[in-house]
Design a protein that fits this description.
With about 475 residues, the protein is an alpha/beta fold. Helix content is about 40%, strand content about 20%. It is built from 15 helices and 23 strands. It has helices at about 40-60, 65-80, 80-90, 95-120, 150-160, 175-185, 200-210, 225-235, 260-270, 290-300, 325-340, 375, 390-400, 415-420, 455-460, and strands at about 1-5, 5-10, 10-15, 20-25, 30-35, 125, 130-135, 140, 165-170, 195, 215-220, 240-245, 250-255, 285, 305, 315, 340-345, 360-365, 385-390, 405-410, 430, 450, 465-470. The protein has a 7-stranded mixed beta sheet with strand order 17-18-19-14-13-20-21, sandwiched between helices. A 6-stranded mixed beta sheet has the order 10-9-8-11-12-22, sandwiched between helices. A 3-stranded mixed beta sheet has the order 1-5-4, covered by helices on one side. The termini are far apart. It comes from Neorhizobium phenanthreniclasticum.
Length: about 475
Amino acid sequence: MRIIDKIYIDGAFVEPHGREWAPLFNPATEEQIGTVRLADAQDAERAVTAAKRAFPAFSTTTKAERIDMLKRLHAAVAARASDLVDAMREEYGAPSTFIDFAAPRAGNVFLDMANTLESYDFRRHIGRAEVEMRPSGVAVAITPWNSNYSFICGKLSAAIAAGATMVIKPSEMSAIQTQVVTECLHQAGLSKGVLNIVTGYGNVVGSALTAHRDVSKVTFTGSTATGRAIVHSAAATMKRVTMELGGKSPSIILDDADLDVAIPQVLSAGFLNSGQACIAGTRILVPEPMQGEIEARLKRAAMAFKVGDPADREVRVGPMVSRKQWERVQSYLRLGQEEGAILLTGGEGRPEGLDRGWFVRPTIFAGVRNDMRIAREEIFGPVLSVISYRDEDEAIRIANDTDYGLQAHVFSSDPDRAKRVADQIEAGRVIINGAPHEPLAPFGGFKQSGFGREFGVFGLEAFLEPRAVIR
């Protein structure tokens, strides 16, 4: 049983003022594996005070000094990659297909930002004005449970590069992962107060941080509903905000797509991170004449997505993070059938042979209309909807007929056609034919998927304010 009874403020692991404890579970077994003592509003105040005190000196560090810090952070995180893997597998239940990407990426984001910083010019001349990009001030990062240390490291890397100090509030459900990554970051030897991490409930610590008058910037990854509340709170003091919110991403299979390539890619995108991903491609758009063939292929291919113990490297879909999330997904499986959708594969209950653990049967609904709730609401589980279209124009219209706009996929044997369709999709990222990850490309959403961007130069500038001096 892990007992986590410290938070990280002003360069040290300290006892929180908060007295409330929360249980930690292994979602694959439903067994309690630890407890975490939660921070409270007074701890949030202590963390902001430390960050504010550190800001004047840190904001004047040189680019070379910040690059050195980023490289030290990378080395410290990379040195404990196996511990990060073990923590995510035990506490979150992610399959190896996701962990194998997430664990190295947690350290690599620091190198990516160091490379961005190498060529970044903080001073430039525009006409008669000298423009300086200055750090925005004390920043707050609020991170979710579905890729805990990747979000912590990604947001921290941009703040360090910009010269901003940071307070991070991770999900209380990810405390073991947070403990491991905090130990890594501590080893990098940043100055006191530059980094502070306070684990607590969103309505307690999160609310205190987003309303704090000494916080200048908030970056949040999570649900659209919570994002709205944070924007409302931040608006009182005109904080700068970056919101990376929900998604209902389309995967468009065009009529010239190579189905041998497209079908596995579509399912990988849809069942990514056990479906607990804002970028998951949960709406599969298929041409009407090919609907029967594609559905048959999807059903066969879905059987290859093994569900079970995430320690098994052949497992492609792990458990939901909690009983609450499992019950939420089950409610959508019932709803889809009530709405008239057809179960192509999957359905309610646990997969065969699994009598414990918050496992969901990977599910594909056919006969889905885009106005059904299962096609419009973010389920956050391994549940996909097949929607047919008559022609390319209707495919684009359906893809864009959503409240969200985070990511999309297009599959075609004709690169020019795929690009033409991609150019018409209202989403922050469009992936053509399963193209590999580009770490320096901007990431963020249109519409209710949020605003602002992360990663690369766009992520760096989210923590900077331009100041012009005109002679």
